[in-house]
Amino acid sequence: MKLVILTGMSGAGKSTALKMMEDIGFYCVDNLPIPLLETFVELSETSKEELQKFAIGIDIRSGESFEELHSVLDRLDQKGKAPEILFLEAEDATLVKRYKETRRNHPLSGGERVETGIAEERKRLEFLKQRADYIIDTSRLLTRELRAELDKIFVKQQDYKNLFITVLSFGFKYGIPADSDLVFDVRFLPNPYYVEGLREKNGNDKEIQDYVLQFGEAHEFLDKLTDMIDFLIPNYIIEGKNQLVISIGCTGGKHRSVTLANELYKRLSGNKEYGLKIEHRDIEKDALRK
Asked: Is 119 flagged in the annotation as binding?
């Protein structure tokens, strides 16, 4: 039998994730009262053969009984029946934005600001995050990308290290991305913008890639950057970091940064220690401004 507790921050996507768990064969129960958790585990062990995977949604909505979860999990652990814990996380700014878009109140905010409820929830959930087997930061994940992460953990059963990396290209003239962890400036390379016939193309086009990558400095930069990231990632994993944004910028975010972000993405692809995605924030902005 496999039992997973799905928990995390309000607004991080728990309801969506629970539906996805159901799609991949889990029997799902949302907002199970904490006092019933032990009983549910006992009953699950005697369930029919076709029901061997269970996911329970538990969060701050449990009210005062949520405080009992500490001791309930300890008792299950002592019995050798401890469930796996999947914790969904998101940055404060992302959570606030989602609440404002849906015009919903945070369950702990009362008459206060949403930020107040988020801060209080983080305090109450900290013990669960520390006990979690899997932590997924949904701040930058699309729905299909969240599904892919759940599939990786519960279907393919890959070794999951709780780190998701975003390789992001951008243009300095539009500002450095606020959520960047590592920022690299590739404006030292010749700019295709000034080459006849290349200005309207972008780093996803072969002509731009061929132009940028003809310079030895581009390959040396990629070699050194890849080597540094390979060194950093295991240390980030040890420290419990679950979201890493690597930003590569040029003047407009259309040519050099896109090309090198794509090349870095290729070099990092295939590593099972982390999730990976690529974004080109400003690739279309020059066209939109005209």
From this structure: no
